[in-house]
Specification:
The complex is a heterodimer of chains A (252) and B (245). Chain A is of the alpha/beta class and 252 residues long. Chain A has 10 helices and 10 strands. Classes of the chains: A alpha/beta (252), B mainly alpha (245). The complex binds adenosine-5'-triphosphate and magnesium ion (MG). Adenosine-5'-triphosphate (ATP) binds next to helix 1 of chain A.
């Protein structure tokens, strides 16, 4: 569980994150949703300590995230996996080297043990025949899978995904979403996902936080989001014709 | 004001580079990789350039002193002095600012814009140490490249002047040995080590702190070259003032 209390973050005096409080629950896929530019990535990077927050506090379970406590942060980071918006695989390494990398850095496993563990997660994310390819040689969907594999190889307690299905076709997008949800339940991880994709919201929105210009204006579940009267949410949710029709049908 | 901000951040970067070390087994591999990319990968261009530059220096000297009263060993002497004191360490370093410098900036810059550096940080790795330290260490071999440049520069001068008939082989070799000062060699290697440090760190700085996308990576490499070569020229001036003047 990750608890966020009243955090704010400005860049050059412009408030990007404005007094947000939230709880991200364990064993659930917690979604941060909002339009492009609403501050999802910045919020996630604040949670991870990649950006320093100006105000407020962040608790990982009961442990307070303090940016000057370097040893606590590096211990914590070994329990965090992250899937970046653009996958962020290391170009200079093959797929399997990318996945082994966290093991090489932080475990005392031998080379053959590392390969066994890497093969396990490769199988878990349904990748085949790509071990020795380089990131530039595989498709976007495969890159996401590799990024997920790399993020879970150390059995993290917390998993962060920044738009895990952006740039993917709708079918692959749902497969990736489902994969993340399954892993979250299977390993009882606290998962935080940024998205602006309504399909993801409906499929895996166990808990949803809705941002508008850096402010949290709503929170709830995927069942609640369809029935809320909040105008801004409705504008966001029903910006697509498909979901407008869904609502009409539901009303009938 | 911006200038002091950059200076401050540059030195902080150097400080972080030497803290919180990456696992040695990993670092060792990175260092060997950098030696291959930065040093071994540059042998060809350094050899080619220094050989031709040495030849040109010798011919220019010969043409400038076509006076029968001047001793025949002057061409060899002048070639040795110019190559060892200036052309090998300084000119080659400027060329390296273009080759190695823009390579470093664009590779680190690409890692920045594709969030690979964030990925390292999230894993709890000190990205400064991971990326910059191996470059600094591998460029400790830079004096080896400059030594090669000195040899080939003088060899180029020898071949050009002897085969074009400006000097006899005997005169040229005697010129090379004339009035040899060990201190000049020390001076050259002091410069070389400083240049090596500049070549590893300034391009890294420009890659590390860049913002934007692929287009900006190109711009950052450009700016990085301008800064790296300017700083090399400035250091060259200061060191020469301090040690030779
Ligand atoms: N390093 C930075 N410096 C200054 N401003 C920034 C920085 N990073 C982000 N911003 C600003 O913060 C705002 C929110 O950006 P953010 O990347 O969090 O949006 P997002 O919700 O993730 O959008 P998208 O869905 O397009 O990824 C934007 O206006 C952006 O310009
Ligand atoms: Mg984003």
């Amino acid at each position: 569980m990750i608890t966020v209390k009243n955090i704010s973050k400005s860049f050059e005096n412009i408030k990007i994150i404005d007094d947000i409080s939230a709880v991200f629950e364990k064993g659930k896929t917690n979604l941060i949703i909002g339009q492009s530019g609403s501050g999802k990535t910045v919020l996630m990077k604040c949670l991870l300590g990649l950006f320093d927050i100006d105000e407020g506090e962040i608790l990982y379970d009961s442990q307070k995230f303090k940016k000057d406590n370097i040893s606590m942060i590096s211990d914590l980071r070994k329990q965090i996996g992250m899937v970046f918006q653009g996958s962020a695989l290391f170009d200079s390494m093959s797929v399997i080297e990318n996945i082994i990398f966290p093991l090489r850095m932080f475990s005392n496993k031998t080379d053959s043990e590392m390969i066994i563990r890497a093969r396990e997660v490769i199988k878990r994310v349904d990748l085949k025949d790509v071990d020795h390819k380089f990131p530039s040689e595989i498709s976007g969907g495969m890159k996401k899978r590799v990024a997920i594999a790399r993020a879970i190889v150390l059995n993290p307690k917390y998993l962060f995904c920044d738009e895990p299905n952006s740039g993917l076709d709708p079918k692959t997008a749902i497969i990736i979403d489902k994969l993340i949800q399954e892993i979250t339940i299977e390993y009882d991880i606290t998962t935080v996902i940024n998205t602006h994709d309504m399909n993801s919201v409906m499929e895996i929105g166990d808990k949803i936080i809705f941002l508008v210009e850096g402010e949290k204006i709503w929170e709830g579940t995927n069942k609640e989001i369809l029935n809320t009267d909040d105008k801004m949410i409705n504008d966001f949710v029903y910006s697509s014709e498909l979901f407008k029709k869904v609502k009409l049908i539901q009303k009938k | 004001m911006k200038f002091f901000f950059h200076i401050g951040r540059y030195f902080l970067m150097i400080k972080y580079t030497f803290t919180k070390f990456t696992k040695w087994s990993v670092l060792k591999k990175l260092i060997f990789q950098e030696i291959e990319d930065l040093i071994i990968g540059s042998i060809g261009i350094v050899a080619f350039m220094s050989f031709l530059i040495g030849g040109v220096v010798a011919i220019q000297t010969a043409l400038a002193i076509e006076n029968p009263l001047l001793p025949g060993n002057l061409i060899g002497f002048a070639t040795r002095q110019s190559v060892i004191l200036e052309f090998a360490p300084t000119l080659i370093s400027i060329i390296m600012a273009g080759k190695v410098g823009s390579y470093i900036t664009s590779s680190i810059g690409t890692m920045r814009v594709t969030e690979q550096i964030d990925a390292l940080e999230v894993m709890g790795i000190n990205s400064f140490n991971y990326l910059i330290f191996p470059k600094i260490i591998s460029l400790l071999l830079y004096p080896f490249l400059i030594t090669l440049a000195m040899f080939l520069g003088i060899l180029g001068g020898y071949i050009a002047s002897v085969y074009a008939g400006f000097s006899t082989s005997f005169d040229f070799i005697q010129g090379i040995q004339l009035d040899f000062k060990v201190f000049h060699i020390i001076y050259t290697y002091i410069k070389t080590i400083l240049f090596a440090f500049v070549l590893a760190t300034i391009p890294s700085y420009h890659g590390f702190f860049m913002k934007g996308g692929a287009l900006e990576v190109g711009k950052a490499s450009n700016i990085s070259f301008v800064w790296t070569s300017s700083v090399i020229i400035i250091i060259n001036f200061i060191v020469t003032q301090l040690l030779l003047a």
